[in-house]
Backbone:
């Protein structure tokens, strides 16, 4: 058995950091101060990223094929680490408000990220399932963090119960796969079922799709999303909406391309259908939301639909576009949510109507939110424009013209609710005075996310080179 | 030349960023920066026009810059000007400079205002110079957010509704356009977005028709072509004066330019097939716009609807597929930009003084403001095609080119000039003449700065009216390659 630990060193480093924070806080008299916790976490993330980088370009396995070590996994590990870092830096005020358990909060966040990193690298059914469960459990705790707020507790419980149910569905699919192939390794499964397209394989594939559909909030598995996004602490929502969702897509694409290439014709059709439903339902329901977190929840459902368009293209160009989309979406949605974190704390309301005149009250926050919303709507020169461009162009190349037509029309619809927020912020007089500035770390993390929104698209030639390599790693 | 061109495109955006990041209370410096930057951009555009060689040929556009940008998808940063785009490029620079001058006294959030106007200039300049279809689309969409904010913040009473309508109509149209661009890319043997390469191939007619329709929907919203025009009266009426000038002057031209640049140049067989449809839509625009303009009670709505009518002449000339007709179309794009720009400025000057645009409330203004009245009359006469002014040249070319092909349509178009004369002169009569009203007795005439702005436009209108060759050589060089395809 191949037990080269350096191949999973990024996960080990981050896991150690998370555990260390929780233990030290318990044993140091008086507990750790907020800044020490943050510093430890930041060091852990940076070390983990530094250990992950050299693994790019490798094309091997660890632990007898349970873990894939390739550019694809490294891409996602870096993505999750960056998202976690930005969320952490922006949750200083949240940490201050739950002073008693803040080490646990940060520790769990890091452990959840370890789970996501494993999920992106999982190349074997049991590993995949364990990683998924580990991430769901930790995020359910995080969602329920505001334990004095009924909505937060409800969010945690809802997420926990529904994710347990979807895990059961997924597990059924994985068991069927194992039964058909006699192996839990994805590539072995792919070879074993290559010449036996039958009803059992189709059922297994459909169940796997349903299980991951929950994780990425694809319609019709999206029911939990608005409630959980609204109830969870906003920083946790930000994390859920980018890192957790991207990990779901990472695992989904790997399973589909490695274990189920034999059923590609079938899953491409199913995913195209999911994409159509997800984009349309997300955008149409977002039109009528009055709470910013619910609106962004439906918007993130719609965004998952665009990602599914790229997967439905089922080509290397499509997977590369999916990776770019997830990167751009992570920057954009983080920028949006981290701005909303600040705004909600400063004006004390989640109602979009209370964002009126925000431009006069806090020009930079209004600017950051406007930029990220325009990027979500897919307007240039922001990252969201380019990510949609790549996804749609890949889908057209695969002949999915009807789906792209639906996608571009959905983008047009979505502009209405995004522009409505900009309208409220910029065109309506304010109803309150100026608002207090952000903490430094929050401002830094917001600035990084906004810089990502502004620059990722323009520099996407270079980013796509990496994405192409990562997508190629799937086709070995 | 390529340095000049890129500077002319990007300098305004740099100015916008500069205005946005100026420290402290920089309201007054904002307008000076905007004036200087847009003035320099205008000089750069004129320098480019000066250096333009009409004999250069299609393969070597002025200031051609071609850099690979996103090589994975074959997207390049390709910009360059030819005889088709150069007039529009100069028009954009000219109108933005004048727009800054006539909004000199903007008191509401002037920094954001001038920054957005400059950002808009870069976007529109990019549309007219992009030779890569994705880059073209990028600039096309880039114009939306600044215009949305400019209408929505600084507009009239129903500004928010008008701004939202504007942006949703355009985005819905460009959704189809993007799909058309993708299919064009896939269908082309070269798999490229480079318009110069795309122009040198001929696709199967059925594919051409599909792409033609998709692209046309996107452009038709912008022109606007009936029945996709309903955003225009709202946007033009609610926008502040200078923004109405830019909307009518250059943004509508983006649609007509797109039809000539993409549909006519890249998809000749489909254009042949749809020419009759285009000719019919043109006449509907001409007659419908004029009829609606006649019954408006709001001064600005008259001009806005006259734009719909006049853009119909562009389509009529183009749909004839004759060399003269297409030249007339491009001429009309340029002259309509200057004439309607001037008309909107005059309406704005009157509104600044009287604070009303209701024709029924105005009257006898000529006695109080003779300069404004005189120039208003010049603009109205140019608009109805008086010989000696530029409107005559372009309309004459359009009719000359289209009559042999579309007899009935041309006759209807010619007779609509009577309607144009009707509503224009009626407006002149009701607003400027008639009994003086006591409430307007204290009003003053145009200031020196305002006279300078309108004087430039009058000079251009007269110059092209009496000496069309200044524009003609460029337009002929730009339209001949298109006409040769038919």
Residues:
């Amino acid at each position: 058995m191949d037990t080269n630990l350096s191949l999973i060193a990024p996960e080990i480093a981050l896991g150690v950091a998370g555990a260390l924070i929780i233990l030290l806080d318990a044993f140091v008299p008086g507990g750790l101060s907020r800044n020490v916790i943050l510093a430890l976490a930041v060091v852990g993330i940076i070390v983990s990223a530094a250990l992950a980088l050299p693994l790019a370009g490798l094309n091997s396995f660890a632990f007898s094929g349970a873990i894939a070590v390739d550019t694809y996994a490294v891409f996602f590990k870096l993505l999750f680490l960056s998202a976690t870092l930005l969320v952490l830096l922006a949750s200083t005020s949240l940490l201050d408000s739950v002073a008693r358990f803040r080490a646990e909060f940060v520790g769990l966040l890091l452990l959840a990220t370890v789970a996501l990193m494993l999920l992106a690298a999982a190349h074997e059914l049991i590993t995949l399932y364990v990683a998924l469960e580990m991430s769901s459990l930790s995020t359910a705790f995080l969602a329920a963090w505001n334990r004095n707020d009924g909505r937060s507790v409800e969010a945690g419980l809802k997420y926990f119960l529904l994710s347990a149910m979807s895990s059961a569905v997924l597990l059924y699919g994985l068991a069927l796969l194992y039964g058909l192939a006699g192996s839990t390794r994805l590539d072995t499964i792919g070879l074993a079922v290559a010449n036996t397209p039958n009803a059992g394989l189709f059922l297994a594939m459909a169940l796997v799709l349903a299980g991951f559909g929950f994780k990425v909030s694809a319609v019709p598995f999206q029911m939990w999303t608005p409630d959980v996004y609204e109830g969870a602490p906003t920083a946790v929502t930000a994390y859920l909406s980018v890192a957790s969702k991207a990990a779901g897509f990472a695992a989904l694409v790997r399973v589909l391309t490695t274990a189920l290439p034999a059923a590609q014709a079938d899953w491409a059709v199913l995913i195209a259908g999911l994409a159509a439903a997800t984009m349309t339902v997300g955008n149409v329901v977002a039109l009528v939301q009055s709470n910013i977190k619910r609106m962004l929840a439906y918007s993130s459902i719609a965004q998952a639909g665009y990602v599914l368009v790229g997967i439905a293209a089922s080509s290397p160009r499509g997977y590369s576009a999916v990776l770019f989309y997830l990167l751009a979406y992570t920057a954009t949605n983080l920028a949006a949510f981290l701005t909303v974190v600040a705004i909600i704390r400063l004006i004390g309301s989640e109602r979009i109507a209370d964002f009126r005149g925000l431009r006069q009250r806090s020009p930079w926050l209004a600017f950051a939110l406007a930029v990220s919303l325009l990027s979500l709507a897919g307007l240039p020169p922001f990252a969201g424009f380019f990510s949609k461009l790549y996804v749609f162009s890949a889908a057209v190349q695969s002949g999915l013209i009807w789906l792209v037509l639906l996608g571009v029309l959905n983008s047009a619809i979505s502009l209405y609710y995004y522009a409505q927020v900009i309208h409220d912020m910029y065109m309506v007089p304010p109803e309150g005075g100026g608002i207090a500035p952000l903490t430094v770390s929050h401002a830094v993390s917001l600035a990084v996310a906004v810089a990502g929104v502004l620059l990722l698209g323009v520099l996407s030639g270079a980013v796509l080179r990496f994405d192409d390599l990562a997508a190629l790693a799937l086709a070995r | 030349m390529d340095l000049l061109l890129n500077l002319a495109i990007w300098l305004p955006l740099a100015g916008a960023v500069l205005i946005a990041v100026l420290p402290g209370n920089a309201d007054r410096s904002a307008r000076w920066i905007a004036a200087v930057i847009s003035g320099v951009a205008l000089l750069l555009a004129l320098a480019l026009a000066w250096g333009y060689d009409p004999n250069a040929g299609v393969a070597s556009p002025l200031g051609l810059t071609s850099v690979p940008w996103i090589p994975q998808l074959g997207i390049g940063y390709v910009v360059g000007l030819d005889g088709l785009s150069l007039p529009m490029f100069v028009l954009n620079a000219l109108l933005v400079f004048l727009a800054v001058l006539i909004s000199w006294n903007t008191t509401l959030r002037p920094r954001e205002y001038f920054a957005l106007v400059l950002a808009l200039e870069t976007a529109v300049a990019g549309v007219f110079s992009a030779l890569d279809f994705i880059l073209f689309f990028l600039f096309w969409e880039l114009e939306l957010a600044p215009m949305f904010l400019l209408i929505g913040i600084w507009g009239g009473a129903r500004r928010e509704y008008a701004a939202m309508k504007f942006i949703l109509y355009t985005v819905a149209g460009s959704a189809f356009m993007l799909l058309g661009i993708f299919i064009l890319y896939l269908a082309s043997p070269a798999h490229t977005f480079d318009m110069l390469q795309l122009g040198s191939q001929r696709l199967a007619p059925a594919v051409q028709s599909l792409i033609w329709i998709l692209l046309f929907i996107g452009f038709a919203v912008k022109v606007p072509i009936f029945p996709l025009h309903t955003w225009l009266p709202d946007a033009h009426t609610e926008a502040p004066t200078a923004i109405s000038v830019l909307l009518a002057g250059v943004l509508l031209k983006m649609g007509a330019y797109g039809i000539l640049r993409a549909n006519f140049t890249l998809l000749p067989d489909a254009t042949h097939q749809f020419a009759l449809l285009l000719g019919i839509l043109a006449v509907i625009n001409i007659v419908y716009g004029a009829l609606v303009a006649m019954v408006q009670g709001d001064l600005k709505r008259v001009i806005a609807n006259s734009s719909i009518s006049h853009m119909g002449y562009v389509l009529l000339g183009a749909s004839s597929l004759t060399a003269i007709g297409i030249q007339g179309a491009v001429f009309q794009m340029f002259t309509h930009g200057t004439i309607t720009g001037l008309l909107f400025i005059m309406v704005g000057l009157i509104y600044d003084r009287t604070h009303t645009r209701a024709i029924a409330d105005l009257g006898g203004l000529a006695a109080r403001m003779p300069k404004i009245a005189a120039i208003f009359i010049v603009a109205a006469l140019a608009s109805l095609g008086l010989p000696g002014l530029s409107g005559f040249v372009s309309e004459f070319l359009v009719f000359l080119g289209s009559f042999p092909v579309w007899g009935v349509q041309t006759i209807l178009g010619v007779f609509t000039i009577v309607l144009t004369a009707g509503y224009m002169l009626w407006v002149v009569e009701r607003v400027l003449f008639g009994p003086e009203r006591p409430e307007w007795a204290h009003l003053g005439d145009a200031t020196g700065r305002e006279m300078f702005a309108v004087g430039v436009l009058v000079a251009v209108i007269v110059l092209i009216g009496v000496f069309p060759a200044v524009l003609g050589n460029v337009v002929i060089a730009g339209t001949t390659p298109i006409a040769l395809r038919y």
